[in-house]
């Protein structure tokens, strides 16, 4: 949950609960293998034991998932839970969403989006900005305090960029900050870079997100090294870079950035450099659907994804989801991104590993959360079918356990255990 708990301490929201999960097929995405007829015991929010025969726990409820595949929770490594642009009234122009929707209303909508993600099996979301005035921190804190259910959130706070960020503001917006500021934090000089990182950390960021190559002022390699130095100093936070040009990618790689967000500008040569330096590719590979992209854009994206896989680049499953598609939940919008990964002919086992293990790693949480492992928080899902052979099995999540509490069973969301009237996790507003 937060830094308050060290390993093996009970999770405060889950104290006193115990379950024995009977898993028909228990999948280990790390090895791409499965074991059959396994049991998992869970107590006080954490996995205790895994095996064909586990020790009974006092007052444990048995959950029968013998007909299903059981696996660790999924990860979307790039989402925007507190941004939902839509056809009406803003004609899908997010520029206007910023103006119309307050931080407060966006934070509440983020709670709903988080619940929708959790229902689709996503127990961890990297939430990378465009979240008004720290609606993302508010969401993370509300989940950690046990007020609402949701995925574990690794949030960036406000995206930092050279003046104007991605936004091409008018002088009135940029200079007077009357409307829509602060969707981006301006940081042009070394002092401003340091200040911006510290502001985000103070207001709850768990990763630092920067605009590597905003027009007209891209960051230099030295600028990015300073970001990395400051983030590292603040408890070892990682720096994620929005990249839209080849030159930006080249500089970010040279600076040793943690992750490159978006795939548009990355080619074979850059993939090779990323693989050599171990830099994460968080490609946000939008599929071609009736509501997104075009065949041409999609084909180019698929060939880039194939190239990245062939080059052994470290990859995460990510979506950039920040829009409403009528009839679909945020989780269903995200799962449609499977289409791109299938089109790139990446083996189902690999896709599953990318959506789980790689997601924990790019979130820099792999040593604390994610794998179904004794001592770890019990973030466990179950699906019909076998995702090692057909990754689209992930579209039918029937069971979700988060922090050792049952959020969904029999395909129905049952969230009552996630609502607490006060903070369960100490009062830590960061
Ligand atoms: Zn994004």
Unreliable parts: none
The overall average pLDDT, rounded, is 95
Radius of gyration: 21 Å
- The computed structural class is alpha/beta
Question: Order of strands side by side in the largest beta sheet?
Answer: 3-2-1-4-15-16-17-18
* List of distinct ligands in this structure: zinc ion
Please describe the biggest sheet, giving its number of strands, its sense, and whether it closes into a barrel. 8 strands, mixed
Assign a percent range to the helix content.
Answer: 25-40%
Structure characterization notes:
With 430 residues, this protein is α/β, with parallel strands linked by helices. The chain folds into two domains: 12-73 and 371-418, Roll (Urease, subunit C, domain 1), CATH 2.30.40.10; 79-362, TIM Barrel (Alpha-Beta Barrel), CATH 3.20.20.140. It is 30% helix and 22% strand. The chain has 13 helices and 18 strands. It has helices spanning 94-100, 103-119, 135-144, 171-176, 190-202, 221-233, 246-255, 268-277, 295-310, 330-335, 338-343, 348-355, 357-362; strands at residues 18-28, 33-43, 46-51, 61-72, 74-79, 122-127, 152-155, 159-161, 184-186, 208-211, 239-242, 259-261, 280-282, 315-316, 380-383, 397-402, 405-409, 412-413. The strands form four sheets. An eight-stranded mixed beta sheet has the order 3-2-1-4-15-16-17-18, with no helix packed on it. It has a five-stranded parallel beta sheet with strand order 10-11-12-13-14. The chain is globular. The mean pLDDT is 95.
Short description:
The protein is of the alpha/beta class and 430 residues long.
Write the layout of secondary structure elements.
Elements: E1 18-28, E2 33-43, E3 46-51, E4 61-72, E5 74-79, H1 94-100, H2 103-119, E6 122-127, H3 135-144, E7 152-155, E8 159-161, H4 171-176, E9 184-186, H5 190-202, E10 208-211, H6 221-233, E11 239-242, H7 246-255, E12 259-261, H8 268-277, E13 280-282, H9 295-310, E14 315-316, H10 330-335, H11 338-343, H12 348-355, H13 357-362, E15 380-383, E16 397-402, E17 405-409, E18 412-413
Parallel strand pairs: 1-4, 5-6, 6-7, 8-9, 10-11, 11-12, 12-13, 13-14
Antiparallel strand pairs: 1-2, 2-3, 4-15, 15-16, 16-17, 17-18
This protein binds zinc ion.
Zinc ion binds next to loops.
């Amino acid at each position: 949950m937060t830094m308050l708990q060290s390993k093996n301490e009970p999770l405060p929201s889950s104290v006193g609960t115990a379950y024995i999960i009977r898993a028909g097929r228990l999948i280990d995405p790390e090895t791409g293998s499965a074991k059959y007829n396994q049991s998992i015991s869970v107590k006080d929010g954490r996995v205790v034991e895994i095996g064909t025969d586990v020790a009974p726990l006092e007052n444990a409820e048995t959950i029968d998932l013998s007909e299903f595949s059981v696996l660790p929770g999924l990860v979307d490594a790039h989402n925007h839970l507190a941004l939902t642009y839509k056809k009406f009234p803003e004609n899908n122009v997010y520029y206007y969403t910023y103006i119309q929707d307050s931080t407060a209303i966006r934070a509440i909508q983020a709670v709903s989006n988080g619940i929708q993600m959790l229902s689709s099996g996503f127990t961890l979301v990297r939430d990378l900005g465009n979240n008004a005035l720290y609606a993302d921190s508010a969401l993370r804190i509300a989940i950690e305090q046990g007020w609402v259910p949701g995925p574990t959130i690794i949030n960036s706070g406000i995206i930092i960029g050279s003046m104007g960020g991605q936004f091409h503001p008018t002088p009135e917006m940029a200079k007077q900050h009357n409307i829509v500021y602060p969707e981006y934090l301006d940081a042009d000089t070394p002092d401003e870079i340091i200040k911006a990182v510290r502001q985000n950390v103070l207001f709850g960021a768990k990763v630092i997100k920067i605009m590597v190559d905003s027009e007209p002022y891209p960051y230099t390699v030295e600028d990015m090294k300073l970001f990395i130095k400051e983030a590292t100093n603040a408890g070892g936070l990682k720096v994620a870079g929005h990249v839209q040009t080849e030159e930006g990618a080249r500089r970010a790689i040279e600076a040793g950035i943690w992750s490159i967000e978006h795939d548009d500008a990355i080619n074979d040569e850059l993939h090779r450099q990323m693989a050599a330096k171990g830099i994460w590719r968080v490609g946000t590979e939008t599929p071609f659907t009736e509501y997104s992209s075009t065949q041409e854009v999609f084909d180019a994206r698929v060939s880039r994804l194939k190239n990245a896989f062939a080059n052994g680049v470290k990859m995460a499953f990510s979506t950039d989801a920040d829009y409403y598609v009528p009839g679909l939940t945020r989780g269903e919008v995200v799962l449609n991104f499977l289409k791109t990964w299938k089109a790139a002919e990446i083996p189902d086992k690999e896709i599953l590993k990318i959506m789980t293990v790689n997601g924990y790693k790019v979130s820099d949480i792999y040593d604390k959360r994610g794998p179904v492992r004794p001592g770890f928080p019990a973030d466990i899902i179950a699906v019909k079918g076998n995702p090692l052979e057909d990754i689209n099995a992930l579209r039918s999540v029937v069971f979700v356990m988060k922090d050792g509490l049952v959020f969904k069973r029999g395909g129905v969301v049952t969230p009552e255990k996630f609502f607490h009237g006060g903070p369960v996790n100490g009062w830590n507003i960061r």
